[in-house]
Amino acid sequence: MKVLGLFVFAGAAQAAALSRAKPQSLSNITIFSPPSDYNIPRTLYARNEQLPNGDILATWENYSPEPPLVYFPVYRSKDYGKTWKELSKVQDTANHLGLRYQPFLYYLPERIGAFKKGTLLLAGSSIPTDLSSTNIDLYASHDDGATWKFLPNGKYFYIFEYGSFFNTSSYSFPLYYRISSDPENFASAPDNKLIVSSGTKPTSSPYVVWTPYGGKHGTIIASSGTQSTLFINKALGEGEWTEIESPEAHSYTRSLRVLEGNGGRYLLVNGGGVLQGTSNSVTATVMDLKDYL
């Protein structure tokens, strides 16, 4: 892994927390709709982060025509996802190959090594147009610009698609998870298949978060790459899961975020479209979990 470069966001967020209304339910808000000359799938792999002042940042795989080299756009919402504006473009200043795949944003809640508390990190794959090499690069911003969720019983939750049986044409990558008190020993934790009471079999590109909302143990919420619905468990991962509706369409590795405050009541669901999609765009939905749990 390479750890290279710093980038500075244009229009830094103010340090003081802003006075604003609380989140509200929103459905399929368009963050970015690419021009017609973008390459298929146009956009993919949307990711987001929330800053201490309440602002939400979003990024994604951006399939703009080359040259110039592809980059990771960063958009900001100052009203809990209702409206979005471009904040910056993260360019491949380290390798000059193009920031192409798997971006991820993370705001440091404490100092780690040389990175101070409050540093915003963006990791992603630097890959040339011919896909002949891969570098995982890390960029940092010091002016405001993973996902392990700690469960209330002191354990960690790890979700994955079971990638086996590649020689079959009908294999669908079912979702499994592991629970461990030590995130460095997930390999020795037993597999648990994600079984849904409705009979739905969620498959591929999972994402999982935990919210304190929903009961004594809070709620684990999982997304898959083939269903628009979400899957919840209020027993810290034990037993069957329940399927709930979501206004946000399914996407390849759709991301989830529990918005800060309000007891974890509001869930941001963020998608960038599907593999080989010809009309992909980047969208966001804010769900009031009171209406679903």
Tell me the distance between the termini: 41 Å
The strand line-up of the biggest sheet is 1-18-17-16
Count all strands and give the number: 18
| Low-confidence segments | 1-19, 146-151
Helix content range: under 10%
Q: Rg to the nearest angstrom?
A: 19 Å
Instruction: Give the assembly state of these chains.
Output: single chain
SS content category: mainly beta
- Secondary structure tally, helices: 0
Biggest sheet, in brief?
Answer: 4 strands, antiparallel
Mean of residue pLDDT?
87
Shape: globular
Organism: Penicillium argentinense
Keywords: Signal
Signal peptide: 1-15
Protein name: Neuraminidase
Describe the model.
This is Neuraminidase. Keywords: Signal. It comes from Penicillium argentinense. By secondary structure, the protein is mainly beta. The strands form five sheets. The chain has a four-stranded antiparallel beta sheet, with no helix packed on it. Strands 2-3-4-5 form a four-stranded antiparallel beta sheet, with no helix packed on it. β7 (about 120-125) and β8 (about 135-140) form a beta hairpin. Helix content is about 0%, strand content about 35%.
